[in-house]
């Protein structure tokens, strides 16, 4: 009897590996892995799903285990047929191939690093690159070399080796080119609007009491008999308003300068910084062009700050003059009311913009959708537009193609924050403004009804406002990713948070136990222990020095014992507090600090890779938002010259100083530190010493044999 265990069905169409993993066909998956040694287990289909992700998504964990085991075997067995064939292709290929690079990055990063050496030459001073257009990516972002490196590996430990490819001069140069052609313009556009949104939110929070003061002045009848100084003190804009005005002007002026970062205009500006000519000339070469590009960027920043200061002083001076020389209080109140409306309108529009940007990033996970829209007819295109605006934001979270975006905590936090600002917080904010204006216009109502209506309303409003404020400030840290030296801080913080989680497991056990113990001992007598939640808070803050022992002793050992506790019970409570302080402060906190120090020290060796990885992820995210297809990417890589001539952007062919790429804020990995160099030499000497000892032993054994024969 022939067993069909590891064979495909005879009367059906043979399944591919992805189909078998999707269907949970364990026998078929095993058969393919055992008999087809050249199968690519890392390949993704058009939806961006790999065979492992299909198996995990459909809960076929046995199939996923087979894929992981195959990946592990290939990692350990350098003579695997797939790896041998891959190395041969990498050695023989002279042109850059995106698919070959992806396979190499996933399976053999070391050999792929050598493959990249074919596209760069160096002399004593400069690098010269070739085929940077192909490495930049001519099709879509999902098939580019950068996406292949940053894509998750099947074996997590292999990810570090793959990310080391970013340290290669070729990929460093590609990152700089992407940043110059589209990254800088898009990044500064988002940064300006985010600063505007952040400062607007801060201004709303700091000036929220203005509404209450206006309402109180109406109730107290003070509007008719007040001076300008009283109005300035009670309802005039605070210092944050002046900062907000500067922010608006700065963002406006910054947007006026952003067109200079477009490739054509930036090339002209660079030329102007070189010889004072604002024009493009074919085959005109600027020596040391990086120096003049830096000067061009510095000029844009300097002009933006200068014009922002001039316009801000003029606007604030005009507003102050109007306010001081107009005795009509209704006019002043109208100005304040307009300020309340305008600030939140700006916040709402900024939140809408960033929500649209996030949706564009989600759509960028499926770049083929742009091709489908371009190739569709008018009616079909209208359906696509309707789908992207109204249906896609709702259903994309449940679609496998976009799972990577929604797997990020930061991305989910951004969407939640923007949606809260756009819908519930906006409604409540405008409702509060309208209630104040209605009161100022003479409307009367029941104070009791108003109190009952707004008590829960204000609590919810302030709670959402506090959440959005904290969230926006925390999310601002993501703009550090493009900093090649400070970008490593974000992944290190993520690593440290794992230590905090482990610490929380130990801490939670003691915290819960001590909470219940103190609540039981004090029997709800002290104010700090009347409820379990109050007891939890009191015991939690002991970790930060608030142990309230002095109050306990002062109340317990006096004739008027307000705690109603016996002296033995007080001593038990004091002993428990001593144990609490020793465990929490001395033991657990020091343990957490030691764990965090160890984590930072362990990852400090990967400093350059982590900084480059953060920078690369930021560039890739911006590229994903833009959603370039093969046509738009081709146009992006060309520079139009006068006369209608369009050629490849000179940035792809510039000679780059070696120092510019090897020292991005760190010492080059090609120049190891003294400790590593000495350690390497010691290992070499140990090997040589062992070889000499083996030879001496061999000579000694030979001499003994000869002596035995002669004897």
TrEMBL record:
Localization per record: Cell membrane
Record-annotated membrane-spanning stretches: 191-209, 235-258, 305-323, 338-356, 377-395, 415-440, 460-480, 500-522, 565-593
GO-annotated biological processes: calcium ion import across plasma membrane
Nucleus listed as a keyword: no
Pfam families cross-referenced by the UniProt entry: Ank_4, PKD_channel
Principal location class: membrane
Domain Polycystin cation channel PKD1/PKD2 per the UniProt entry, residue ranges: 380-599
Record GO cellular component, one term: plasma membrane
Keywords: Calcium, Calcium transport, Cell membrane, Ion channel, Ion transport, Membrane, Repeat, Transmembrane, Transmembrane helix, Transport
A molecular-function term among this protein's GO annotations: monoatomic ion channel activity
UniProt topology in membrane: Multi-pass membrane protein
Keyword Repeat appears in the UniProt entry: yes
InterPro entries hit by this protein: Ankyrin_rpt, Ankyrin_rpt-contain_sf, PKD1_2_channel, TRPV
Protein's name according to its UniProt entry: Polycystin cation channel PKD1/PKD2 domain-containing protein
Lineage: Eukaryota, Sar, Stramenopiles, Oomycota, Saprolegniomycetes
């Amino acid at each position: 009897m022939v067993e069909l265990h590891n064979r495909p069905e005879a009367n059906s169409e043979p399944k591919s590996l992805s189909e078998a993993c999707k269907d949970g066909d364990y026998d078929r998956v095993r058969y393919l892995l055992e008999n087809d040694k050249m199968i690519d287990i890392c390949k993704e289909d058009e939806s961006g799903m790999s065979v492992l992700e299909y198996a995990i998504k459909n809960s076929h964990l046995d199939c996923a285990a087979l894929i992981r085991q195959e990946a592990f075997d290939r990692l350990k067995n350098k003579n695997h047929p797939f790896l041998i064939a891959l190395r041969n292709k990498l050695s023989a290929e002279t042109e850059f191939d995106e698919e070959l690079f992806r396979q190499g990055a996933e399976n053999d990063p070391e050999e792929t690093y050598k493959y990249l050496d074919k596209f760069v030459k160096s002399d004593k001073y400069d690098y010269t690159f070739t085929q940077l257009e192909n490495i930049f990516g001519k099709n879509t972002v999902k098939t580019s070399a950068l996406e292949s490196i940053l894509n998750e590996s099947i074996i997590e430990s292999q990810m570090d080796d793959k990310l080391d490819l970013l340290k290669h001069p070729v990929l460093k140069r590609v990152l700089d080119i992407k940043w110059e052609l589209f990254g800088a313009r898009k990044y500064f556009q988002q940064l300006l609007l985010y600063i505007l949104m952040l400062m607007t939110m801060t201004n709303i929070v700091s000036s929220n009491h203005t509404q209450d003061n206006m309402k109180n002045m109406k109730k107290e009848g003070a509007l008719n008999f007040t001076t300008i100084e009283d109005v300035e003190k009670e309802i005039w804009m605070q210092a944050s308003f002046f900062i907000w005005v500067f922010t608006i002007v700065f963002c406006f002026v910054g947007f006026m300068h952003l067109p200079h970062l477009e490739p054509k205009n930036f090339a002209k500006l660079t030329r102007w910084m070189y010889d004072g000519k604002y024009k493009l000339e074919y085959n005109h070469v600027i020596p040391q062009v990086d120096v003049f590009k830096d000067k061009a960027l510095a000029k844009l920043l300097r002009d933006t700050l200068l014009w922002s200061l001039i316009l801000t002083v003029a606007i604030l001076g005009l507003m102050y003059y109007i306010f001081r020389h107009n005795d009509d209080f209704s006019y002043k109140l109208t100005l304040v009311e307009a300020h309340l409306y305008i600030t939140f309108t700006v916040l709402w529009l900024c939140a809408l913009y960033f929500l649209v940007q996030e949706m564009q990033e989600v759509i960028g996970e499926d770049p083929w959708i742009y091709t489908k829209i371009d190739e569709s007819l008018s009616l079909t295109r209208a359906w696509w537009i309707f789908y992207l605006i109204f249906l896609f934001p709702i259903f994309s979270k449940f679609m496998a193609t976009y799972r990577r975006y929604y797997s990020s905590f930061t991305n989910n936090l951004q969407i939640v924050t923007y949606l809260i600002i756009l819908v519930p917080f906006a409604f409540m904010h405008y409702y509060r403004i309208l209630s104040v204006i209605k009161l100022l216009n003479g409307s009367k109502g029941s104070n009791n009804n108003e109190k009952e209506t707004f008590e829960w309303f204000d609590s919810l409003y302030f709670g959402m406002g506090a959440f959005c404020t904290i969230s926006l400030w925390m999310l601002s840290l993501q703009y550090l990713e493009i900093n090649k030296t400070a970008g490593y801080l974000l992944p290190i913080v993520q690593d440290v948070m794992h230590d905090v989680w482990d610490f929380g497991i130990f801490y939670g056990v003691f915290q819960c136990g001590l909470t219940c113990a103190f609540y039981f001992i004090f029997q709800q007598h002290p104010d700090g222990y009347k409820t379990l939640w109050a007891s939890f808070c009191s015991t939690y803050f002991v970790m930060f020095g608030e142990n309230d022992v002095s109050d306990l002793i002062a109340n317990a050992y006096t004739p008027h014992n307000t705690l109603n506790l016996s002296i033995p019970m007080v001593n038990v409570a004091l002993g428990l507090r001593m144990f609490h302080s020793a465990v929490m402060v001395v033991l657990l906190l020091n343990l957490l600090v030691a764990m965090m120090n160890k984590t930072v020290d362990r990852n400090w060796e990967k400093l350059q890779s982590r900084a480059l990885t953060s920078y690369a992820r930021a560039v890739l995210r911006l590229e994903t938002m833009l959603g370039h297809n093969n046509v738009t990417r081709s146009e992006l890589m060309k520079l139009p010259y006068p006369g209608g001539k369009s050629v490849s952007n000179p940035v792809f062919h510039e000679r780059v100083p070696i120092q510019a790429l090897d020292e991005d804020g760190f010492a080059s990995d090609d120049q190891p530190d003294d400790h590593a160099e000495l350690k390497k030499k010691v290992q070499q000497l140990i090997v040589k010493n062992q070889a000499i000892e083996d030879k001496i032993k061999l000579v000694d054994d030979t001499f003994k044999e000869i002596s035995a024969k002669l004897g």
